[in-house]
Amino acid sequence: MIDLHCHILPYIDDGPKTWSDFLEMARHAGKQGIKVIYTTPHHMNGYYINTKNDILKHVEQCNEQLKKANIHVQLYPGQEVQIHRDLFTALDKGEILTLNNGKYLLLELPSSYVPSYTHEVIYELLIKEITPIIVHPERNQGFIENCQLLFDIVLEGALVQITSGSIIGLFGRKIKSFSEKIIDHRLAHFIATDAHNTRSRTFTLNEAYETITKLYGIQQMYFFRENAELLHNGNQVHVEQPIPMRKKILGLF
Ligand SMILES: [Fe+2]
Fold first, then answer.
1. How far apart are the CA of 5 and the centre of ligand 1, in A?
2. Which domain of life is it from (predicted)?
3. What backbone torsions phi and psi does residue 36 show, to the nearest 5 degrees?
4. Separation of 80 CA from ligand 1 center, angstroms?
5. Going by C-beta distance under 8 Å and a sequence separation of 6 or more, which residues neighbour residue 84?
6. pLDDT of 40-60, one tens digit each?
7. How far does residue 190's CA lie from ligand 1's centre (Å)?
8. pLDDT digit string, tens, across residues 126-147
9. Tell me: domain 2-232, CATH 2.40.160.20, correct?
């Protein structure tokens, strides 16, 4: 399996703080059947600055460590970029890293609201042939309160990644229900772990795919798995026609 969103790089992010914790995380992923991990450290989120070249160097070093430790997991470079007015200046300066230097970028929104300039940023990225993947919108209060915003963003051309822990209820019942609502409305394109450690925020891709199979059937599970593979192989991912969402999700909150 392929994990497109993970904070496994040691020292530079809010993931492992030692080499041994890093190796433990990688071993854990391998046991879960995850053989390809996109390392996506935070960037411009107010706490972490991790520019493209620094990440590329670090990933190379980490892959060497995995080889030495005989852990059969391959790391690929990526970045989780917080939406920011200076995003395009950073892009021009070569500080932004798309997934494996391809055409997809993990874009994080603040957890409490959807900035008014989000549409503008998505539009400008698409013009530059970069497709933003909005990470974990199910945990964004702005989308929870006005889910039509998510529909509009997907209609504009952005893709959506749901966190595996949300699907299996690790963030509570409301987040799980909203994740399901997003899938029901064909607004989700990827599932990824966003793992930070081997305890509270670990690799739960298997569990999430099992839950999706139970809830929606095996086709939906393969839709997500294949999309991760298509992206990894540089191919066009599957996108369905999104269904508009009502402003308030009745009976949910
Ligand atoms: Fe993340």
1. 6
2. Bacteria
3. -125, 125
4. 6
5. 44, 90
6. 999 988 888 999 999 999 999
7. 14
8. 999 999 999 999 999 999 999 9
9. no
Helix (H) or strand (E) run with residue 133 in it:
strand 131-135
Amino acid at 213: T
What is the spatial distance between Cα 221 and Cα 217, in angstroms, rounded to a whole number?
Answer: 7
- Contact in structure between 169 and 204 (CB atoms under 8 Å): no
**7 CA distance to ligand 1 middle (Å):** 6
| CA–centroid distance, residue 247 to ligand 1 (Å) | 27
pLDDT tens for residues 221-251? 999 999 999 999 999 999 999 999 876 544 4
The H or E element spanning position 202 is: none
What does the block give as tokens for 89? 């200046």
Span from the CA of 165 to the centroid of ligand 1 (angstroms): 12
- List C-alpha distances in Å: 148 to 59, 121, 155, 162, 243: 38, 18, 10, 17, 10
